[in-house]
Amino acid sequence: MNFSIDFAQPWVLLLLPLALLPLLHRRRDALQFSSLNWLPADRPGRVIGILWRFSAMLAILATVLALAGPGRPETQVMRSGRGAEILLLMDRSRSMDLRMLPPDWRTLDPVIMTQQAWSRGPQKSQVARQLLAKFVAQRTDDRFALMFFSAAPMLVVPFTQHDEIVQAGITAGGVGRGLSETDVGAALLAAIGAFDQRAYSGSRIILLVSDGGAQLDAETRQRIQAGLLRNRIGLYWLYLRSINSPNLEAADASEAIPEIALHRFFQRLPTPYRAYQADEPEDLAKAVAEVGRQQNFPLDYAERIPRFDFSRYCLAVAAFACLMLLLYQAKQLRSWS
User: Which of 41-50, 75-84, 152-161, 288-297 is most confident?
Assistant: First the structure.
């Protein structure tokens, strides 16, 4: 435990000698008597006089210390748990505002299924946000970061263990509409870069939540592969499939399709990769739960403990000392009246 103390305004401590002022005798406090031997001993008065001076000194001392801003400096504490460092990479393109298949899509007439799917299914981005919020709430030992992307990536929350900040970022992802363009390559490179300056402490994954793919050029593929390998990152893709989107597991699917091309590239990576295809909200919920079960390894992490300010306690002591002085003054006024 760190018991060191720092001061936000250390120069104020130069005023500490002012606390000695109550020890100085004032001339008007002296009373003239011809002989002190005739005066009775006033022990209560002596005690009250000492307490008055002590209260005055304490009020000045506590006030000066409060103005100096004493506090426990910011520290880092190493903790251990079970989990992972997870970067949530969420697609915010316009296609994510479309709908997933409704739960009863298998029972619909094929003739009207397309029309029903576009009008009755839940919005993909909304379902993804709800499940990710639940996922974050259930994993208290994980460290999360949140990044949205469409035409360009945007880091919303850097790595933190404060779940309420991540939850606020996920909620903010529902504001407004997405852009029509999607750059998965730039988003993955930005997500990998978020791990570059971090010491390796356990399992790391990028959780890509998207409904689209991309035809990546050779340079981008090489950089993604090198970055994942360098930072030892596993990749999970939660693929939100619409009614007209390709099936990732189709054996005869052509790599001319962006989603298939991206999936095949991920499969050839030397680092761990898993794809979860979700046609309906239940599939996505199962995929999120499966990711949670897999990522449960020992994790060491440094928790940042913010600076703790002690000024409030100094002000409380100063207020108490001033109250004692007021009570003493009130007693003096009553005795003179």
Answer: 152-161
DSSP H or E run through 274: strand 273-278
- For the chain, give the number of residues: 337
Fold (topology level) of 78-304: Rossmann fold (3.40.50)
Helix %, strand %, coil % for the chain, to 5?
Answer: 50, 20, 30
The domains of the chain are located at 6-27+41-74+306-336, 78-304
| Strand segments (E) across 39-174 | 70-72, 75-83, 85-91, 143-149, 153-160
What is the C-alpha separation between 149 and 176, in angstroms, rounded?
Answer: 14
The 3-state DSSP class for residue 280 equals coil
Rounded CA-CA distance 295/71 in Å is 38
pTM above 0.90, yes or no: no
At residue 11 the predicted structure's pLDDT band, cuts being 50, 70 and 90, is very high
Which of 193, 180, 83 minimizes the C-alpha distance to 139? 83
Count Cβ atoms below 10 Å from residue 151 Cβ, excluding itself: 15
φ/ψ of residue 156, rounded to 5? -90, -45
